[in-house]
Please model this.
Amino acid sequence: QKEVEQNSGPLSVPEGAIASLNCTYSDRGSQSFFWYRQYSGKSPELIMFIYSNGDKEDGRFTAQLNKASQYVSLLIRDSQPSDSATYLCAVKNNAGNMLTFGGGTRLMVKP
Amino acid sequence: GAVVSQHPSWVICKSGTSVKIECRSLDFQATTMFWYRQFPKQSLMLMATSNEGSKATYEQGVEKDKFLINHASLTLSTLTVTSAHPEDSSFYICSARGQTNSPLHFGNGTRLTVT
Model:
């Protein structure tokens, strides 16, 4: 079992819809959770991070964390074609010094 | 926000030569820097973790004598690909973090092509 798992996709949603990206992790000691967006040929850029159970909203993005179920999700409201990219989930526990990345989910927003 | 600068953004070199890639944190002190490699349509693969003033920790399967990492200051880490071969052609990305729990910020990446 991979430490951080994501559905590789592609996830296809129509413009204006809500895109829901999910990520599960295996280490119950994980404390910090991050979502990165990576456009083709570019390096990842941080979208959001979340440390506590519940929802965290930033503009059109909402991160949701459920430590009991060991999943973290990213919702993108009013999806735009410019949101089309690969979204990487990353997880860190306090004992370690590095992030563990999922394989990424490719999102396609169709006009 | 935190800015990480990586240079060069792309480089083409001949087989057998060495290439140095620089990673700088511009507006914060990076106690830890990470080097990743990404092949087309694949996910990020961590190569090594470097802490300022100490030897880098390499991931399994990454040759430390081939990929030399130096983290001499809190704002600069370098990766040198020695005796490069065509199979080393890839997208190399550095990332840096200040405090332990602060987010990781990535450089823009270096596309290396070895001919």
About this structure: The first strand of chain A starts at residue 4 and ends at 5. Chain A touches chain B at residues 31-32, 34, 36, 41-46, 49, 51, 88, 90, 92, 94, 97-99, 101-104 (CB under 8 Å). Chain A is about 0% helix and 55% strand.
